[in-house]
Sequence to fold (520 residues):
Amino acid sequence: MHPLYGTTAVAGVGLRQYKRGASPLPEQAVLVEAILAACADAGFDPADVDGFVSYGDDKNEPVQLMPALGTRELKWSSVVWGGGGGGVAGAFGLAAAAILSGQASAVIVFRALVEGSSGRLSAAVMAHHLNDHMLAAGIVAPAQVCAIRANRMYEHHGVPASVAEELVRASYYHGSRNPEAVAFGQAFDLEEMRSSRWIAEPFRLFDCSRENDGAAAFLMVSADRARDLKRPTVYLLGCANGAEKGWGDLLENDDEALYPTAGFRSIARRLYADTGLSPADIDVVQLYENFSAQGVASLIDHGFCTYENVAEVVRFDNLVAPTGKLPVNTGGGNFAQGFIHGIGTAYEAVKQLRGESANPVPNAKICLLAGGPGAPTVSSAIFGSEVP
Amino acid sequence: MMHANDGADAPYWNGLAEGRLLLPRCRCGDWLWPAANHCAACGGEEIAWVDRPMRATIFSWTRTWHRFGLTESLDLPFVSIVATIDDCGIRLLGRLDDPDQLDPVIGEAIAGRSGATRVEGRDIPTIIWSRG
Fold:
């Protein structure tokens, strides 16, 4: 069995989330609150946290958190490379690597984002990737980068653009029922979505995730140690991170077959091979959707459907808990739960497997976390409430 | 942020500024894009910058309606495309004339002319494409 399989676990979670620009505290202070909440959730002394992992160019260097947390000794601080959300799931693999190799024993995975402290996320992501080829073409935002790929998927590969609407509706449906979601209590107006303004074709406003202030933190420890802590154990069963030849930062010169994908073909291959699991074993999916089409492409990459049958699978009725066969984004996802660079999708993965989701999937034991799609480096992970 | 003229693709930028499309080809025949000083296929380092006609087909496109920062010099909406250059397969980002807002079609033949996009006081060379 692969060394990652069921050997580490998430023992506690903490989330603070606010409307963009509305955080009552600066970014680092919000992050400290989320970390303390994760430790309290687990019943774990925050001073004993000895490792930290983040992704997406997070600006909070762990050593700066030590005074507020009372950290006794920092043994591991690292990030997954990449400016986008491609690293969100890979961060859990990095934390597990630290624990399994004995380099740290209690690792916080985190992401914090407060506009007043670090500016707009979309601008930061693009600053990481921008070059003169893009600037000269007027391509300056993630929405445009993803829009070009989406048009190719729709027009050349025959994916009906209507599936995007099904995915967005499912996210908003779940979000409207989740008290922790930005869309809580809000009725979703399909006509408002369809008539919302164009951003970059084929994306209208509702095809785009919208940023929030906040932070989330996850306490990871060995599986043995997690079982002694107070919350239900959520095991990491597998994690894959990276890019295959023909995908990456290639100035649009990706392999032609990979171009319209979300970049996960090799990730999904490895993840399923390492865990011995298949799409049929996945009870629920937490899907990072920066943009609607990339969410659909990610579901295709992860083997839930194909270009040919995507419309049969990506249907609102099929995507919503508790009755859908492929429940997706049961917290509301980036669209409707909130968007702190995708970390909320990991939060809902844990809540769902602990039986604490606002939209519970009956008997959910295995959850796929599909990380930021379309990024040059991408990652995904599988979590389980037990080790099958 | 990477700027023109300080990387392996400097001849591309210098060519465009003179109205020419120059693209890099290894002695083994492989076209290299993103530009590189070393060919991963054969290990060779003899890279020639070859003149190509500005003829291509549309690989994909988007029409931007939102006023994103750094696009202030472009009238909204504007169309950005990925163009597959004829007879070499390299794909380039560029802009497409869009006078009638007719949706571009993937595979459609296009012809280019050299132009520039003004971004924060800099004129960055680019190819402006038109149909036909």
Notes: The CA atoms of residues 93 and 239 of chain A lie 5 Å apart. Chain A has a mean pLDDT of 97. The first strand of chain A starts at residue 8 and ends at 19.
